[in-house]
Amino acid sequence: MINVTKTFLPPQKEYQAILERAWERGWMTNRGVLVQELEMKLKSFLDSFHIINMTNGTLPLQIAIKALGLTGEIITTPFSYVATTSSIVWEGCVPVYVDIHPEYLTIDESKIEAAITSKTSAILATHVFGNPCAVDVIQAIADKHGLKVIYDAAHCFNVKYKGQSIFNYGDVSTCSFHATKLFHTGEGGALFCKPEYYDRMFYHHNFGHQGQEAFQGLGINAKMSELQAAMGLAVLPYVSNIMEIRHKVASIYNAALKGCDLDLLKLRPETAWNYSYYPVIFNSEHALLEVKKALEAINIYPRRYFYPSLNLLPYINSVSMPIANSISKRVLCLPLYPELDEAILTKIITTIQSITL
Ligand SMILES: *Cc1c(COP(=O)(O)O)cnc(C)c1O
User: Fold this and answer.
1) pLDDT of 298-312, one tens digit each?
2) Is 53 in the pocket of ligand 1 (CB under 6 A)?
3) Which of 43, 101, 103, 326 could staple 266 via S-S, CB 3.0–4.6 A?
4) Which domains does the chain have, with CATH numbers?
5) CB distance 81 to ligand 1 below 6 Å
6) CA 89, CA 92: separation in Å to the nearest integer?
7) Is 154 exposed, middle or buried (0-12, 13-18, 19+ CB in 10 A)?
């Protein structure tokens, strides 16, 4: 069975050698040496702002909303994974959707100002598929209206925009290290923030502890464990190579699908991308369903990332988001991972060509 992705597993011996260090100390969590070493290595590898490793990529979103004191309405994108919206609702705020750009698939910055009300406290947008939002325009809007900016950068491991880490934009960025993501710790994630927010975010992710007996304020438990960090330390040395092979696979798709009746992801200029996903946008849902069925018949399972559009979630007062609705019905992510066999790649390509050429 071929899935949209396959988790990269480092050689087990290398993972075990790192785990041994946790065994020697008898220390499994509470920011042990492995979590701290992973943070240091990630910060230097990514060249990013302050980082706090966490237990997944969703809690950093919730902690960011809570720690920035956001209330009322948060402007967000309907085209993302459900965690972007659910975090807003979970923290007692109201998501206000702004439709997406039809080619970049990120929130349409030209429509944000019209959605701002006296209740708006922030913009929470997703760099979907690792494609950066219009961060400069969004920051200017936020500054003008006194709003905070959070980026769900779950897909953005090692993405650079205008020469620096994409995690450096906005007040807070979050990343996921889930096993299906480019870089992973099994389950895991991180929060990146400007230096002035670091303490607040840190306390919030560890029960508000300020030492053993004092509490700085309210907190929750979002700490990454040593077992998770060990996986990260074992995977990290392979990431550059993983990206290189993904780049090659993406180039093969690009060349083969160029003449087909479909659109490929348009990357924002000045982006150094990470090849995290390979979305294709068919010209009808019918074509997508036909391709999906034909691939499933030969045991290949692409995924409808992201469907349905988040404004249609059952706990949301539905609003019309024509572009996100249309894109989400027509977008399919093709299998993309380093060990993807060439024969399989050829099968995927010929199947799509047979339906869309
Ligand atoms: C994967 C993902 C998340 C959630 O990350 P977890 O580590 O699974 O909690 C959040 N947002 C987006 C856009 C994602 O793709």
Assistant:
1) 999 999 999 999 999
2) no
3) 103
4) 2-236 (3.40.640.10), 238-356 (3.90.1150.10)
5) yes
6) 5
7) buried
